[in-house]
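lol so apparently i was supposed to do this last week
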Amino acid sequence: MRHFVIVGILVIIMAALTYAGLNSAGLMPIEASAQAVSIDSLWNYELIAMSFLFALIVVPIIYSLVIFRRKKGETGDGEHIEGNTRLEIAWTVIPLFMVIGLAYMGAYSLGEVRRVDPNAMVVKVTASQWQWKFEYPDSGVISTELRLPVNRQVVLKMESLDVIHSFWVPEFRLKQDIVPGRVTEYRVTPSLVGNYKVRCSEICGTSHAYMESPVIVVSQADFDGWIAEQQAFTAANQTPEGKGQALVSANGCAACHSVNGAVGVGPTWQGLFGSTVELEVGSSVTADEAYLTESLKDPKAKVVKGFQPTMPIYPFTDEEIANIVAYIKTLK
Ligand code: CUA
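anyway here it is w/ dinuclear copper ion bound
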């Protein structure tokens, strides 16, 4: 009996020390979502159980090794023990109730984490090798970073364009695979303003390790401001000049035509509009809308002096050409 009391006390001390050690090791990143609270509380119970079981196994083993070791001159066999029904019932029934308890805690916590807020904000997430795209259907904003207002539930409707990816923000504690061909939901209520990162946590090819995007949690006011800013930016790109610039960058025009005065394979566009251009045939022409339009439709019609007629014909529509000309006009 004396041994049981001593071991019992040692187990409690050992469990407390183990728990304190694990707790101070900082195993978890900062807690940044409402859902993280119940997950972290589960994790805390798990640490307690782990520490206790560790002590329950290690302390009696070490105690027995030290106290019950064979004394000098002892040559007989150890005492023969044949079963113990009461002990066996105890170590079956107690863990049974413990597992039932764990199942209850797990189910309860799952319910908390999955709780649906009917006012949740919807964000469409598209994962592809190897990037994230975020769309805000309420405002039409499309972004490569996920910006969220604090303390408001967001439901991510996630789709993959190619293989299985997985959405994981460690600070939110939740992780969800994204499987091609179906829409997967992920609900989270960010609870702490700050900068985080979404990482892909399903190996998805060569650049899997680099598949991450900023997740920025801000106040509702800052979020509204950002949405307005993004909308204004998108609207600005809807002007003819904006569309023209987008066409220019989509078609790689900058490979030959600089916009800063540098001479490349083709003439620079800086200061081109309205200037007088000397042609290969000896005459000269004013770079007006008619000239630029003609040169975009038929690059070889009027070749500028000093350049080769190497520009291919691009299949631009008349409207696209007008947009590109409008963009060139802005390059003073
Ligand atoms: Cu996407 Cu790994």
